[in-house]
Design goal:
Elements: H1 2-10, H2 14-17, H3 21-30, E1 31-36, E2 41-43, E3 52-57, E4 59-65, E5 71-78, E6 82-83, H4 86-90, E7 97-100, E8 104-109, H5 111-120, H6 125-148, H7 151-163, E9 175-176, H8 180-187, H9 191-203, E10 207-210, E11 213-216, H10 219-226
Antiparallel strand pairs: 1-8, 2-7, 3-6, 3-8, 4-5, 4-7, 9-11, 10-11
Helix pairs in contact: 7-10, 8-9
Length: 228
């Protein structure tokens, strides 16, 4: 029963839904449920590889903190995303920290189980490569926007990307559970700049701001601001 529930939740994601049925079955058969309490660390930079994760519920924060205490927030991973594949390819330690923003339910397929599966079915490496290449493509897009786009366009682009699950989901969300502080960190903008841009967009009727959330009221105008 639990595998069927997991499958239904994960099938809303592009990557998992496009996998061969046998690979879907193998991942779920080898998966173990991993609950996390708010703020609980999943892994930290330098930890040994621990396999692949899928988010069933909640949000996982991926980033790093410098010795001076400055934080870099790279991603907020939500359902039905999978993550952790880099260490599967190179066998190297984790590159960043990952912790739960609130209560989370994850699936974990261990490194050993994945390598055994891929030894038996080497053709499945391509599916894992597609998962990683999608994220690499997004990273290049974000770097380009950071260098070339003005701050309002970057905010608009990131909100649209989050609403569409970074390409993982077909149906965009109107309400994003995203505190302004986290959006600012994702974009490497000051909180003051981000707050002012969001207030301007709210004044234009494009967004509605709430406590810890942002509602997209006019996606077409937001897309125009993003340059789309």
């Amino acid at each position: 029963m639990k595998m069927q529930v997991w499958r239904e939740r994960l099938m809303s994601g592009q990557w998992f839904s496009c996998l061969p049925a046998q690979l879907q079955d193998s991942l779920l058969a080898n998966a173990r449920l991993r609950p996390l309490a708010p703020g609980q660390r999943l892994f930290q930079r330098g930890d040994p590889p621990c396999g692949l994760y899928a988010v069933l519920e909640g949000t996982v924060r991926v980033g790093a903190v410098s010795e001076e205490g400055k934080e870099a927030l790279l991603s907020l991973v939500e359902a039905p995303h999978w993550f952790g594949e880099i260490s599967l390819f190179d066998g190297q330690p984790r590159t960043h920290d990952a912790c739960a923003v609130g209560p989370c339910s994850l699936l974990n397929v261990s490194q050993a189980a994945l390598l055994e599966l891929l030894d038996e079915h080497p053709q499945y490496w391509r599916q894992l490569a597609l998962l990683m290449s999608h994220k690499l493509r997004l990273a290049f897009i974000n770097l380009e926007q950071l260098s070339l786009m003005p701050a309002p366009a970057r905010v608009a682009n990131r909100l649209l990307m989050i609403a569409r699950g970074y390409g993982e989901t077909d149906t965009p969300r109107r309400v994003l559970h995203l505190p302004q502080e986290q959006l600012a960190l994702l974009l490497s903008l000051s909180r003051q700049t981000t707050n002012q841009i969001l207030k301007d967009l709210q004044g234009q009727g494009i967004l509605k701001l709430g406590y810890g959330e942002i509602e997209i009221l006019d996606e077409d105008r937001l897309r125009l601001l993003a340059g789309g």
